[in-house]
Write a structure and sequence with these properties.
Length: 172
């Protein structure tokens, strides 16, 4: 396992202090993915399913990060037509991109995920977009949610509301 820098350990502790429902806004290259995966490793069990939602271009990077830093086995989901039989559940980490998420929601919800990591949260600017609606549906009843982004706020404060509402619906 890769040893975390002190600032990363501080962020992991801050996530825990917020009850595992946090927006992690660090600059690109500072390790948001390794921080969130380390939090999962430290505070959840191997049997607790985690789903990473990210842009398609980052799916294989997430798989590498999980394997390289923590030795986690993961499964990258693809295609807009999920298999009619169950998803392989021998993995504790499933990685899916925004554009196909809405097609997979019923199967993913049946797996009872404990943590959803939303990478590049600026993709959720519009609360009525298909991707935002899909992420909100996936996160409903999930105990832990981490939103990651180097630029979670692009233009207007209203654009941050959908993300905050998904992470902390009790507050926003």
């Amino acid at each position: 396992m890769t040893k975390l820098y002190p600032y990363k350990r501080e962020v992991v502790q801050e996530i825990q202090d917020f009850g595992g429902r946090s927006l992690v806004g660090l600059d690109m290259g500072l390790g948001k993915s390794s921080i969130s995966l380390y939090w999962k490793w430290k505070y959840l069990t191997d049997d607790d399913l985690t789903i990473v939602v990210c842009p398609a271009s980052l799916k294989w990077n997430w798989k590498y990060e999980a394997s390289h830093h923590l030795g986690m086995k993961s499964l990258v989901l693809s295609g807009s037509k999920p298999p009619s039989t169950g998803i392989i559940t021998s993995r504790s980490l499933l990685i899916i991109n925004y554009d196909i998420l809405r097609f997979w929601i019923p199967q993913l919800k049946q797996l009872d995920p404990k943590l959803v990591i939303i990478d590049e949260v600026h993709f959720l600017l519009n609360r009525y977009s298909k991707r935002t609606v899909a992420v909100r549906e996936l996160c409903r009843d999930v105990p832990y949610i981490l939103g990651l982004g180097g630029t979670p706020l692009i233009n207007r404060p209203a654009e941050l509301w959908p993300t905050l509402n998904i992470i902390r619906p009790d507050k926003y």
